[in-house]
Amino acid sequence: MTRSSRMARLGAVLTLALLLPLLVVIGSAGSSSAADSGRVRGQITDTAGRGLSRMQVIWFNSSGKYLGKRNADANGVFAVSPLAPGRYSFQFVDRRPQYDKTRRPQKDVTVSVKANRTTQVRGRLPRGAMVYGVATAGGKRAASARIVAANQYGTSFEVKANNRGEFAIGGLPPANYSLFVWDAKKQWAGKSTYVKWVKSNTSRKANVKLTRKAGGLSVDLYPMSSFRGKRLWVTATNRSTGQWYTAAASSGVVSFAGLMPGSYKLTVPGAGDRIGRTGLVGTVRSGRVTFSSMSLTKRGAWITGTVVDSVEGHGVKGATVTVRDARGTVLGSARTNSKGAYKVGGSWTSQKSLTVTVTAAHGWLDCPDPDRGAVRYGSSSRTGISVVTGRGTSVATISMRRGSVSATKLCVEPKPTPVPTPKPTEPSVPAPGPAPTAAPTPTGTPTPTPTAPASPVAVPAG
């Protein structure tokens, strides 16, 4: 072996020796991040333990926030990772259509996840019940009618009838059910059809009839400033039958169609700085639209304060202020103005143990004051805050911890490029001719814009 080859091999050995500690460090960094997470594995089966196909897994955090979904394999096997330690709610859902008689009822399971652990879950889904029949409206089969089966637990299931008015609702858990029907044009109405206790793996026939002309309801919501530009869901409840319908309110107006005649009350959620309420809105009659109005008169609570720079003490512009309740649910958020001031509030009632958190998008704020470019800030918060309905609460000044400052982005507005003013052109003089006779301007009748009612959803009260 030559001297040069021995030197080359020695260099390769030394290089490998230097790289080994680095590789170990890189590997340990990956394992340390994985140590903060856990995994959930499981299988969805029937009551005999046989794996089920066409199943889906949906999971939520402890506050009920949706996190994700995943289809199980052909044997119902699934795995979800990584998951931070904590409690989760898992739903096992059959992906077969609602009218399929082999569909299984949904099952909910609470799962606790621990770091560096795999939690095993097995969801056993029994066979579902089924309700089927024929829907008629005005004595004729109701093609494409909308059918809703609602039980005493507040759960509803929906299908659409075929062109002969026939329907089937499968995958029902054991319960008592009320069937509600709307014909496709929402012209007929009727009381709900009651189906007493349907057992698992059984079928029950229940024909439904709409025998009365339906009515409509249109309600103006006030104050206008609270509803302007907002879209929210409003509920109308028949005081006699307990049937309730939902529709979307847009810019302070909500309209319902296909309502069972009778006296109604309206439930409006909070909007703007007003607290929601329930109130009477009149009587709906067959073949007519009832017009009414409702006002939200009670103001909610709100929070005000100021965010400042931890170094120079000036107000921080553009910071995000988020308010959460004791369970961690976000109640509202706002951005600070040029002086660092903010106001967050709405339809809040009196409550305690609120938390105000101030953050910067991606950790940076652009131009928080005129002399800076982008500045890195850490998050800050205040806890244990109480609010009272109809009153504002002032929070002590929150100081944001300043980090590095970017010199590559300055807060100087670019001067606009001047646009040259064109020289006026001498107008051409037309040849003289007979003056035209002015044609009269017709006065057109404005065409009304119909408001398309939202599709209602009915479930029984109680």
From TrEMBL:
> Has the keyword tRNA processing been applied to this entry?
no
Question: What ranges does the record give for the region Disordered, renumbered to this chain?
Answer: 410-462
Organism from which the protein derives: Nocardioides daedukensis
User: Where is the sequence biased in composition, kind Pro residues?
Assistant: 415-453
Domain of life the protein comes from: Bacteria
Q: Which Pfam families does UniProt cross-reference here?
A: Big_6, CarboxypepD_reg
Signal peptide positions on this chain: 1-34
Q: Print the keywords alphabetically.
A: Signal
Q: Name one GO molecular function term.
A: carbohydrate binding
Query: Which InterPro entries does the record cross-reference, listed alphabetically?
Result: Big_6, Carb-bd-like_fold
**Bacterial Ig domain: from which residue to which, for each copy?**
310-360
Which named protein is this? Bacterial Ig domain-containing protein
Return the Gene3D superfamilies for the record: Carboxypeptidase-like, regulatory domain
Q: Lineage of this protein's species?
A: Bacteria, Bacillati, Actinomycetota, Actinomycetes, Propionibacteriales
Residue ranges annotated as coiled coil are none
